[in-house]
User: Fold this.
Amino acid sequence: MTVPWDSHWSRSGTDRRIYPEPVRLFLVRHAEAEPGEPDELRALTARGRQQARDLGARLAAEGADGAAVVTSPLLRARETAAEIGRALGATPALDDRLAPGATADGVRDAASDQGADRVVAIGHQPDCGRIAAALTGGPKPEFPTAGVVVIDLPRL
Assistant:
């Protein structure tokens, strides 16, 4: 693989890391949503809006302030992202790679495309559990609504 000089090696030659610092990924399942059809238009419940606000405040307090926020295009994920983005001072970006059926590679690429060292990615279950397991090599974590798993990814 050819690696561009300026993106992976320092010009001074003193820093010999192959990759820059890792990207801290905050993988989030959307907050509680109303039941109904069509699935892509299910909105957050009042409890879900509160869950999203609380999660945004918690993420800001725990070092995610200023992180990029990327979300599934489904309404419940967009509404979760809006509350988190407000708490973090970020404007959420929509990414189809986070829609139901998302993969670890898709989430990794969506996070990398943000060009940030901290990224909050909002998706769906059971995808979030599978993605977390694939990215960490561990078991599938539980992902309640508004659940979050923090994963450090090497930037490729």
Remarks:
- The first strand starts at residue 23 and ends at 29.
- The longest helix spans residues 46-64.
- The two ends are 11 Å apart (CA to CA).
